Amino acid sequence: MTAYWISSYSEILDADKMAAYAKLALPALTAAGGTFLARGVAEAWWEQGIEERVVLIEFDSVEAAVAAHDSPAYAEALAALDGGAVRDIRIVPGA
């Protein structure tokens, strides 16, 4: 069953660290089987009205998404981010 990696960025604290992270995270997660479906700041929002950056990545399974997160290549990306953003990451199974 497909799974979705959803990242919500409530605050970017260091744009340079964020850029270094993105440069490493994109190839790490695509090499692990992820397909980026959406990236960017919401164009419309309701309820809480929080304007934040969101990333949506599709994987073949929850296990594949978790393995991508736990991979050495993604660990390198996380080291580059080094507190440069306040965010939440969730892995959600497809419906």
How would you describe this structure to a colleague?
The protein has 95 residues and is of the alpha+beta class. The chain has a single domain (3-93), classed as Alpha-Beta Plaits (2-Layer Sandwich), CATH 3.30.70. Helices cover 37% and strands 35% of the residues. It has 3 helices and 4 strands. It has helices at 15-31, 62-69, 72-81; strands at 3-12, 35-41, 53-59, 85-93. A 4-stranded antiparallel sheet has the order 2-3-1-4. The model has no long low-confidence stretch (mean pLDDT 96).
Number of structurally distinct domains: 1
Task: Give the strand content.
Answer: 25-35%
Q: What value does the average pLDDT take? A: 96
Computed CA radius of gyration, to the nearest angstrom? 13 Å
Q: Low-confidence runs (pLDDT<50, min 5 residues)?
A: none
Structural class: alpha+beta
Number of strands: 4
By CATH, the architecture is named 2-Layer Sandwich
Helix-residue proportion: 25-40%
What is the fold named in CATH at topology level? Alpha-Beta Plaits
Main sheet: strand order = 2-3-1-4
- Number of helical runs? 3
Which H/E pattern describes the elements? EHEEHHE
Output the CATH class name.
Alpha Beta
Instruction: Give the overall shape, derived from the CA principal axes.
Output: flat
Distance between the termini: 8 Å
Could you give a short account of the major beta sheet?
4 strands, antiparallel
Protein name: DUF1330 domain-containing protein
Organism: Nocardioides faecalis
Pfam families: DUF1330
